[in-house]
Amino acid sequence: MSERKIDGPTGVETTEHEWDGIRELDNPLPRWWLWTWYITIAVAIVYWVLMPAWPGLHGYTKGVLHQSDRVKVVHDLADLKALRGAEGAQLQTASLEEIERNPKLQAYAMAQGQAIFGDNCATCHGQGGAGGKGYPNLRDDVWLWGGSLEQIQHTITYGVRTGEPGAATTQMPAFGRDQMLKDGQIDDLTEYVVALSRRPANAAAVTRATPLYTEQCVACHGAQGKGDQTKGVPNLTDNEWLYGSRRADIRDQIVNGRGGVMPTWGKRFDPQTIKALTVYIHANAGGQ
Amino acid sequence: MTVVIDRTKPQSPNGHEPVSAAARARARSAKGGGLYQARAPIYPKLVHGRWRRTKWILLVLMLAIYWITPWIRWARPNGLPQQAVLVDFAGGRFYFFGIQLWPQEVYFITGLLVMAAMALFLVSALFGRLWCGYACPQTVWTDLYIYVERAFEGDRNARMRLDAAPWSFDKLWRKSGKHAVWLGIAFGTGGAWIFYFHDAPTVLRGFWVGQAAATAYIFCALLTATTYVFAGFMREQVCIYMCPWPRIQGAMLDQHSLQITYRRDRGETRGPHKKGETWEGRGDCIDCNACVVACPMGIDIRDGAQLECINCGLCADACDEIMDKVERPRGLISYDTDAAVAARAAGKAAVYKLVRPRTVYYAGALGLVSILMLWGLTNRSVLDLHVLRDRNPMYVRMQDGSVRDGYTLKIANRSFYPKTVSVHFKGLPGARLKTPGSPPTAGDLLVTIEPNAVRAARIFVVAPPGAAAGPHPTAFTIRDGRDHARANTVFDAGTQP
Q1: Check: complex ipTM more than 0.85
Q2: What pLDDT score does A3 carry?
Q3: What residues contact residue B413 under an 8 Å CB cut-off, 6+ apart?
Q4: In the predicted model, is pLDDT for residue B21 greater than 60?
Q5: Does residue A190 form part of some domain?
Q6: Domains along the sequence of chain B with CATH
Q7: What's the gap in Å between the CA of A128 and the closest CA on chain B?
Q8: Does residue A188 belong to the interface with chain B, where contact is any CB pair within 8 Å?
Q9: How far apart, in Å, are the Cα atoms of B436 and each of A126, A148, B316, B426?
Q10: Which of B223, B285, B333, B419 could form a disulfide with B270 if both were Cys (CB 3.0 to 4.6 A apart)?
């Protein structure tokens, strides 16, 4: 810069840049601004020393504080466990009814139950618990193994047809596959089951099937076809069909006698977790 | 609007060295250029007068408010905090005497900020930067620090001599005494800050035994450091280089705004005056520089209104003292408007206009927001209701053909007492409500919410068999005596099987 240009009204040097007649003043920066800049540089260097900073060929500089988010997460998880321990202790001692009646405890149990349900149960029963073909709907008021708090807790703990001690063992015979009944008899029984659910059916077939039903089915499904929750026997008179309500579905079930398997969760979860899951399922099903 | 900064005139018409700090800094940079400008130290001289007195009173008042407020107790039931003013970050509550705000009511804080902004605009348009000169913490604490400085080192001339003098025992104890008291005040300031965020007696005890939260120590240290640095060393640099308000205020002021003004029409032509000389043919300004040495911002008010001026009126006090001595009327420097100065210069009577379009807009906006806030606060329900509808599954069909939808009701009880609300479902004839573990009922459900808490209640609505298929627009209402809330939702009756 050969010659310094001074702005008239302010007496301040200009940068000699001009836009539409407006000249840029070259006011000097306060010196302390410069010092704050030096301080930020110093802070950066201190930071490199204290904290993980520079990448290298074999990892990165760790910093003398050994700060690590990974380690922090581990600590946080441990803290969370300790925190849950306090709340969880209440879950352990309170009865299922007490948990359900205490709004705070219920909210805690349901939050825990929801997470566990999503991780473990939703695979078969669906994210919302609405089930699907072969997998019971946990939202409605039809319960194969009973819908009271204790019954739900029992079912989760022991599971269904896993072969573990305590698990339900009942199994419907495969009347067709094992050739216990002839095709015609199975057709007649299908009509009988349709009639049980108060739908129009072939009256002649129903008459033919009546002695067959008494002989083969009554032991489990009962004379009225109402089922038996202690054995997981479905009610044949309602609108709920685990394997489908069409004649072909019903016939298929008589032929193959399918029954689902549910894991024995008592082997995997502690009793407190099962309690939380029970309360969650019971609450969302509207309870029984 | 008149041109306010006029530096075309020579700075020292009488051969005196320029004395305002700003002028000295300018002169230094003009000599060698230089990329950076060192701060020219400012030694404001003590003045006496009504603005100085007003500033002392306001200083005591505002510091008292700051230090006493967190210690005011306020009885609240059910184990809630007993502190009148408390920002409880941990609990997510703001307590202000009888009012408590929840995070979702942040619009009240927004309204308060809008009111503060409008009040600031209005005051600025009417009376100039009174906030800067009298109420801004930067001004208040700087004033307090200069008071301490004066107590240890004496007034302007003594301080300048002391700074120029070589180190001695006298200089050492005066300087260290000043900094010790400064640090004490800074610590008191930073320490009082944390009382607003925790129960004051508890955090006071905990602070000394190392039991307070880490944030308490961090913020105490932070506020101590900023107070010490801003009020002790940065002072006017904060206003000139860090604060946006001096720049924004240009949009609030006009030629009818009162601001500290050198009455050019009366003062010029300035020049020294000996006792007994005539006042004919000259101005009242005797160029004594009393206004310049009194200025805490280091400017010469006779240059006109400028960004640095905080409108504190100390130069007016200084000038009035001189005017009394030379037996001229007071008010050569006073709160005046550019329009009045221009009118008098032209030989016309000065006219003051308080009612102008901009003051009417600002007052109108302030009034409107105040009314809205008042209405909002008085009509604020202590109950709040939000409904989350189950979406998976959308609906559940029961054995008897009825349809059940699940809802989670988030009911907030903002009162200090437990509330039992009756939950009612509108818009679906024959609907029954049920909670987990109880049978459906045809009437309303009762839900109890703890004081100062939110409860998430699971509620099922059962539509009778034969309810029309598809979605029904419905609503939940909750009521407890006078308090009530409503939330719209949808009941999905599904498709017929």
Answers
A1: no
A2: 66
A3: B382, B383, B419, B449, B450, B451, B452, B453, B454, B455
A4: yes
A5: yes
A6: 21-39+254-345 (no CATH), 383-492 (2.60.40.10)
A7: 5
A8: no
A9: 20, 11, 76, 20
A10: B285
The answer to the question of residue A136 being in a domain is no
**Side-chain-facing half-sphere of B13: CA atoms under 13 Å:** 12
**Overall average pLDDT of the B445-463 stretch:** 91
Cα distances (angstroms) measured from residue A58 to each of A38, A52, A62, A68, B25: 31, 14, 11, 17, 54
Other residues' Cβ atoms within 10 Å of the Cβ of residue B1: 12
Distances (CA, A) of B12 to B19, B254, B279: 9, 30, 21
| 63-92 in chain A: CB under 8 A from chain B | none
- The amino acid sitting at A184 is G
The answer on pLDDT for B1 being more than 50 is: no
The parent domain of residue A250 ranges over: 172-256
Q: Which of A285, A287, A242, A288 is nearest to A117 (CA)?
A: A285
Which residue shows structure tokens 């000038």?
A: B319
Q: Which residues contact A192 (CB under 8 A, 6 or more apart)?
A: A201, A205, A206, A209, A210, A212, A213
Q: How many domains does chain A have?
A: 2
Q: Would you call A32 and B29 a contact, using CB atoms and an 8 Å cutoff?
A: no
Residue B5 to residue A10, Cβ atoms within 8 A: yes
Domain assignment of residue A129, yes or no: no
Nearest by CB to residue A29, choosing from B5, B8, B36, is: B36
Q: What is the pTM of this model?
A: 0.76
- Classify burial at B82, counting beta carbons within 10 Å of its beta carbon; exposed 0-12, middle 13-18, buried 19 or more: middle
Question: What is the gyration radius of the CA atoms in chain B, in angstroms?
Answer: 33
Which residues make Cβ contacts (< 8 Å) with residue B340, sequence separation at least 6?
A: B350, B351, B352
Q: Rounded to whole angstroms, how far apart are CA atoms B58 and B479?
A: 48
Alpha helices in chain A (DSSP H): 31-50, 69-93, 96-101, 103-116, 122-125, 149-158, 183-196, 203-216, 218-221, 247-256, 271-284
Contact in structure between B318 and B47 (CB atoms under 8 Å): yes
> How far is B83 from B332, CA to CA, in rounded Å?
49
Kindly indicate the confidence band of residue B18, based on its pLDDT and cuts at 50, 70 and 90.
very low
Residue B207 has pLDDT above 60, yes or no: yes
pLDDT at B8 over 50: no
Among A90-94, B152-156, B408-412, the range scoring the smallest mean pLDDT is A90-94
In a domain? residue A118: no
Minimal Cβ distance to B397: which of A31, A101, A140: A140
**Chain B residue closest in CA terms to A13:** B30
